[in-house]
Structures are given as C-alpha cells and as structure tokens.
Design goal:
Layout: H1 13-41, H2 48-72, H3 89-95, H4 98-122, H5 126-153
Helix pairs in contact: 1-2, 1-5, 2-4, 4-5
C-alpha cells in the first residue's frame, strides 16, 4: 500500500518538512554556538535561554530523525534515484548505501548531543556548561556535516 503524499516536482511533504526542520536546526545551532562562545570567552552566565536552545537543538535532531526514517521507508523510496542512464551508473552505486550511512551517523550525532546535554545540565560551573555544549554539540554537528557530505561529494 502506498500513500500519495507527493507534490509537484517529486518532493514529498515529508521531504519539505525535513528540510524546514533542518533549517530550524541550523538557526538554533548557530544561535547556540554564538551564545556558548560568548559565555566562554566573555564569562557570560548560563541563562535559561541557553538551556532552551540546547533543548531546541536536541528536539530538532529528534524531529529530523523521525522525518528521515519516514523518508527512508516506502514514502520516500523513489526520491534520489530517478536517473537510470548508463552514464550515471557510478553515481547510483556510490549513493546506494548513503541512506544507511546517513541514518547511522545521525543516530551517533543524536547520541553525542544527548550526552552533551546531560553533562552540561549536571555541571555546576557556567563556563564549564558552555564548554560542554561547544565540545559535544560540535562533535555532533561535524558528524551531521560528514553524513551530508556523502550525498553531495560522491
């Protein structure tokens, strides 16, 4: 059984939602990193907005995971493989395992971000909280960038 959730141009509602959540994630991550770097280098206290931005970072990652799994299922199975010419065979082979690699790396990024959130909440020093967010969320962000590089670089 297939659901007809595709809009004009082959984009599904789920893919558009995934993209919008990714943009929200990026805005939240940039804002969080700016506040964290200011907190470390200008000795700013760890405010409630910093904690809310950390939660926003994690929540948008979870939403991306949900919509990514929906796209990985039958609803998004025909996106990305709409070229079947002989010239693009290498592209098909190189992108064949990308969805699985992307999901695994995203799960690790989510795990590391959750670990960073737990550690930063349990830390007493404001400066150390900002450092924990910078360290763990940077690792998480690097994993996300690396997982996206598989589709765009290869």
């Amino acid at each position: 059984m297939s659901l007809n959730v595709y809009l004009d141009g082959g984009f599904s509602i789920f893919k558009i939602a995934h993209i919008l959540i990714s943009i929200t994630f990026l805005i939240c991550a940039i804002w969080l990193f700016i506040r964290s770097f200011r907190g470390v280098f200008k000795e700013k206290p760890y405010y409630r907005i910093d904690k809310l931005l950390s939660f926003g970072f994690i929540i948008t990652l979870y939403l991306q995971l949900i919509f990514g799994i929906i796209l990985f299922s039958n609803l998004g199975s025909n996106t990305g493989y709409n070229y079947l010419s002989i010239d693009n065979t290498v592209k098909i082979v190189s992108k064949r395992l990308w969805p699985i690699e992307h999901i695994v790396l995203m799960l690790f990024a989510l795990l590391i971000a959750n670990l960073g959130l737990i550690i930063s909440i349990n830390t007493l020093s404001d400066k150390r909280k900002h450092w924990n967010i910078i360290i763990y969320y940077s690792i998480s962000l690097l994993l996300i960038i690396f997982s996206l590089g598989g589709i765009y670089l290869f």
